[in-house]
């Protein structure tokens, strides 16, 4: 058995080097990235995930996705892929609410 001295307190976990942004800035950034093409891309993703489900469910999930995106814009990291972030929200919305 190997006994090593544990350092206490433990070494802190390093946070990603993310620039500080105001919530207002992120809301405006997310809004500016919500183009018609982005919306159609997310709609297509949800439609494929939903399989043969009702189009009303797809519309509901897409709408909920964009509402949640704006409510949680402070969690979006500028410079990352907005579509991947939105698709994650859509995926979670579809499978937790439907």
Counting DSSP H or I runs of 4 or more residues, the number of helices is 4
Order of helices and strands: HHHH
**% residues in beta strands:** under 5%
Radius of gyration based on Cα positions: 19 Å
Largest sheet: none
Poorly predicted regions are none
Shape: elongated
Beginning-to-end CA distance, first to last residue: 51 Å
Description of the structure:
This protein has 98 residues and is mainly α. The chain contains four helices and no strands.
Keywords:
about 100 residues, elongated, mainly alpha, single chain
SSE inventory with pairings:
Blueprint: H1 23-33, H2 36-50, H3 55-71, H4 82-97
Quick take:
This protein has helices spanning 23-33, 36-50, 55-71, 82-97. The protein has 98 residues and is mostly helical.
């Amino acid at each position: 058995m190997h006994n090593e001295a544990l350092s206490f307190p433990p070494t802190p976990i390093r946070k990603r080097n993310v620039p500080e942004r105001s919530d207002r800035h992120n809301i405006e950034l997310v809004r500016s990235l919500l183009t018609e093409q982005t919306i159609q891309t997310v709609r297509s993703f949800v439609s494929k995930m939903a399989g043969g489900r009702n189009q009303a469910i797809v519309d509901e999930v897409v709408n909920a996705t964009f509402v949640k995106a704006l409510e949680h814009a402070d969690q979006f990291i500028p410079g990352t892929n907005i579509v991947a972030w939105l698709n994650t929200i859509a995926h979670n919305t579809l499978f937790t609410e439907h």
